[in-house]
Amino acid sequence: MSPLEFLDARSSVRAFDPNAKISTEEIKNILSHAANAPSSNNFQPWKVIVIKNKAKQKILKNFSADQKQVEDSSAVFLIFGDKSTYDVQKIMNFNIRNKIIRQDELREKTERVTAYLQLHPEDAENEGLRFDIGLFSMNLMYVVRAFGYESVPMRGVFFDKIMDYLNIPKTYEPILMLPVGKALQPGFPHLRYPIDEFSNIIE
Which positions are tagged coiled coil (predicted)? Predict the structure, then answer.
């Protein structure tokens, strides 16, 4: 399968093998690769809670319109955004510590990012958060496939009840539930509008 064929073959799978296991080491490896997704000024505002416990997944299923894939998946990834990570000083310390920038660049980089956020404050609020988490989530879905699993992105769930049940900080913004597992059957085929309906190439 070519890289493009691999990308095109991703689909939303809703029938998982309930006996398929995923190791904690695999989950950590998947998240490590998924975190290579881009984000505004490299703030990396994602938070992920992963549940791979059938009893807990059954309860999550009750909060998810009784959708079977939540319980049958090997693990459920809950993806949140955290606006507190839009912290200029924190990311600059990270950049210095990891030699992304030099000490003599610190002031200029700090001023540049600060000025950008003053010009576009929405990028440090829910609008920017959802954009950044969307980039991470799509990357995560492709990485999941690279590890031999499939997934289905879900928004039709009671995130407030899930957060109460799992005692998740209220400062987290719930974005997506992503059940992950071994497919018992493929997802629906891709049918999309022709490119002429959504694009315009200017030469």
Answer: none
